[in-house]
Amino acid sequence: MTQRSLNYLGRRNDGQTPSELPATIPVVCAEELDKLLGRVRHHAAGFVTDLAHPPRALRVRAGEVSLEVEWAPEQGSASVSAEPAVLPVAGEDPDLHYLTSPAVGVFYRLPEPGAAPFISEGDPVVAGQQVGIIEAMKLMIPIEADQAGRILQVLKNDGEPVEYGERLFALAVLSAAGRAQPCSAKC
Amino acid sequence: MTQRSLNYLGRRNDGQTPSELPATIPVVCAEELDKLLGRVRHHAAGFVTDLAHPPRALRVRAGEVSLEVEWAPEQGSASVSAEPAVLPVAGEDPDLHYLTSPAVGVFYRLPEPGAAPFISEGDPVVAGQQVGIIEAMKLMIPIEADQAGRILQVLKNDGEPVEYGERLFALAVLSAAGRAQPCSAKC
Amino acid sequence: MFSKVLIANRGEIALRVARACRELGIQVVAVYSTEDRDSAVVSYADQAIQIGPAPAKRSYLNIPAIVEAALHTGAEAIHPGYGFLSEDPDFAEVCRDHGIAFVGPPPEVIAQLGDKSAARRLMTEAGLPIIPGSLTPTRSVEEARQIAEDIGYPVVIKANAGGGGRGMRMAHEATAFLRAYQQTKTDAQALFGDSLVYVERYLTSARHIEIQVLADDFGTTIHLGERDCSVQRRHQKLVEESPAPRMPPGLAARMGQAAVRGAQAAGYLGAGTFEFLLSSTGEFFFLEANCRIQVEHPVTEMVTGVDLVQEQFRIAAGEPITLCQDDIGLRGSAIECRINAENPDRDFVPTPGTLAEFTAPGGPFVRVDTHGFPGYRIPASYDSLLAKLIVWAPTREQALNRMDRALAEFRVRGPGVHSTHSFLREVIRNPVFRSGDHNTTIVEQLLRLDNVPGAA
Amino acid sequence: MFSKVLIANRGEIALRVARACRELGIQVVAVYSTEDRDSAVVSYADQAIQIGPAPAKRSYLNIPAIVEAALHTGAEAIHPGYGFLSEDPDFAEVCRDHGIAFVGPPPEVIAQLGDKSAARRLMTEAGLPIIPGSLTPTRSVEEARQIAEDIGYPVVIKANAGGGGRGMRMAHEATAFLRAYQQTKTDAQALFGDSLVYVERYLTSARHIEIQVLADDFGTTIHLGERDCSVQRRHQKLVEESPAPRMPPGLAARMGQAAVRGAQAAGYLGAGTFEFLLSSTGEFFFLEANCRIQVEHPVTEMVTGVDLVQEQFRIAAGEPITLCQDDIGLRGSAIECRINAENPDRDFVPTPGTLAEFTAPGGPFVRVDTHGFPGYRIPASYDSLLAKLIVWAPTREQALNRMDRALAEFRVRGPGVHSTHSFLREVIRNPVFRSGDHNTTIVEQLLRLDNVPGAA
To answer: Least CB-CB distance to B3: which of A22, A53, A73?
Structure first.
């Protein structure tokens, strides 16, 4: 039910430098800290699971290791049944862009039956270039690229009905730096 | 669903400088910290479960280990109309204990009209000592102290109707250490 | 009319009664166990008194606590709902002794109708057909076995202090008799503190039809038509409807008249129900009379337009019934489904827990009586009824379609919580049930089908 | 009957229509704007098509998008609900041209009844009394002023393409006429793209009474009694009821017969409403005819037992009405309150926002039609109707008590969100309203009282 975005707060208050520590305190090595951090993480996650009410914030500290976590205010339940469609989803490559349908209608990749498609995967496009058609109530609405780039993928088949806002083309945007590369593997 | 305003808890009390630490502080290894953290977590979770009302924030610290958790202010739900009654409320002195009514009825402080009350504020009591009466359907139910201690407060008037579980007396428990003091001012 | 009433119950019926009070301008006192502190009726009521811990014996069955609560709050009447103390003649008597109006019949009537053999004798005298069997509790196993031989197998052995489908066992043949008899006696002692039992012929493929009656202090007794409660699992009703489907012409009226005769013979007062078995050949037999508002009363309300709980209050306040028999006509068809917090896949085991989501159906001709809400914790201490979903339509077929759509709208979710609403949808869609040609074995048959590998 | 229907609407009415479809075994196609992605009807529907962005012009008023959606999904009919395209003759015509059944009257009928002057002429010919005034749009301010002089002040100037209380202004005396006239023309152009107006006598202390009609393709036209919609704020209805209180004997029947005559004269088909003003002296005048299902249709459903939306589908599918006039009887009394997400303390400004809590009333004889649910975000783009609360009871007084109790059960809460349910409780408890002796000025009077310092 709850959608949470975990924001780790990097606010470890560890301004202490070893030289300030009394001589009796051991220097904790990276390996040790890693292990301890693993345990802290384990306990923090387990603790949250134990709670009947989800917390808003949690801070755990064990010696040199501390972990702080905060949750965004919970928002609605929202059973989304529709394709979100319009905007690129958070976390996706910022250079990835979608051309969406401006109307409910039928999508055509070809200017007319038997002709070559307006555009194919891998092709470069310039802003304003027509890449397809939406037919709505016998009206032919041209689909144009709104930015320069390269067509990564054609997401609908020729003649397929589409809704308003549905994604038609994935476009790798030609950024200022001049790269128009496919979405990197990590996205 | 829940509207939450994130209020950062009071700053972690980390103003200590290493120089203030006593030289005798023990060397705490990761394993030890892990074990301690496990116990802290256990106690924190257990404590939250024990509480009649979910808390807003909890801070637990044991030596080098500390755990802080915050909940969003709960809204709406649960309009508790009843006196919680049975359990000591969070934050209260653990030595503070309540004697509650075992039945719906009328509370009497006096054995009979005109007589002296069973007990008065400030009086010491021993376990099993009668301190009042609940009359329910002409039945006289004696109220007895279930622990030794001192009566801090008589919470109902003579002849007042009470519900099941309502608090009748506040009792400062005579602890093992022998103190039976009133709730300390800070509670 | 009363100005303040105490409701000695919990769950949906407590809320139902509280709503009736509000509409009549009566102040509401709720009583609750520690387990029900956050319940809907507690927030709904004008006053709420905690009467005891979770176990019903120490709270909702705790007569001194409830009467004390009524006396301290100045409640002039107590509505007992159903279950708990609703048919306890001692409770009704204690109320009377303390000058509190008990919303129900006088203790003597409750006592007589609660003694099942006595009720059978009384109804026989009033001319009601009863199922062949003993007219007094059997004094020995020999006597009981002889009666069984005389009336013929299958027979059912019933607790004399029982009712509502509890404390009864079938014996399909002579060899099974002894065991069933002794087991029923043991159950009867455990359930009702009274090991008396009696023997009746067991009717196969019968339907359970009951008649709602109202009787006031001015000699008026009327009936409000019938309810068909044949959809039962282990004698617990799951689906009820009014009118009963496929009734031969005039039969319902004859049963109604019989119930009125029975109520008059018993000196009945208030709202009551006369339960009958209707054989496959169209004969009806008096089964028992219930001295309470029934769980399934809403179906009668929907087809008659009468608010039965408000009528209960009027009668208890000494007012005459404002209706006469000719005013009562059953309009259209109403069906009720009991939504229980149980897991149908695990033999209907109750599944208490907290409701993360709880959305009841709505829209045209849909009524929901429930104490559930998002965040409600269903306690393990009490019965598992979570909601009653009632629909009305001009015809039974339309009502079934409406019920199907409404059941589909139900959303009940929570860790460990299950609900019977999807199972009830199967019942509602079952062709035999839809045809109205079912009897009390329908759920059993349906569950057997479900367990056949390869069955839909 | 259709097997698949598209619902060209949103909010509670879209859900209402979807429920009727489910009960008739019809598959549901919902259409929605980006703003309504998470709405109740989208999750309810079998299919859902996003037709445009938030502004209604590009989504719910977007004829090509809706017709395309119907064609692609194979919907055989479109139900337009109320508002939006429900009374757009062009839309009805486009549907017909594409072989899609429009659930409503033919485009020609919508066009004629939508032209308010034309409708007045038609109804005069059919023998219905109309309010004195112009029978054609006025051609000049001089002509209009002359008519006003002839019929006498106060007068009301109305947009010819208007309706539903929008695009009309009063002139209480001659000096105010010019300004009111010109302002109405400006409003009419802005609201309906048509600056034609006409002039009518303004009836003070009148009641708004409307008649529900049903007409099929086989020549049957019946009426289903009246609704009193006199509780209005700025010509927007807040509370509706059926039957109308304090009607002289026979008057409702006469108005019903007039409505049937009017519907027959117009060649009406489907469900429609004839609105009348009823003067304090008991005369009634035709006001306008509405070619849609009304917001307040449930009160008629509750007293007649007829599911009007299902009847709309039957008629649109070419089936005959299964009822005849003699079958229709108004039973008991039904009241509807419109719960809007508005702040009564700030001049009823809409308060969109997310519902942290949303609990609708329940229990006996309570119906709620709502698209709200906990977590629902009320968009700012559309009207503020959040729920319709309907109650039924045998008498008006009992229905008022029931409404009072049900309104008290409503829980609507969310950051910035307000609701009118508490204000409506004031209306329901108002002695003038309870007496049934109110007229269309009651809300104004009540609000004025509220603002008097020291008033309760």
So the answer is: A73
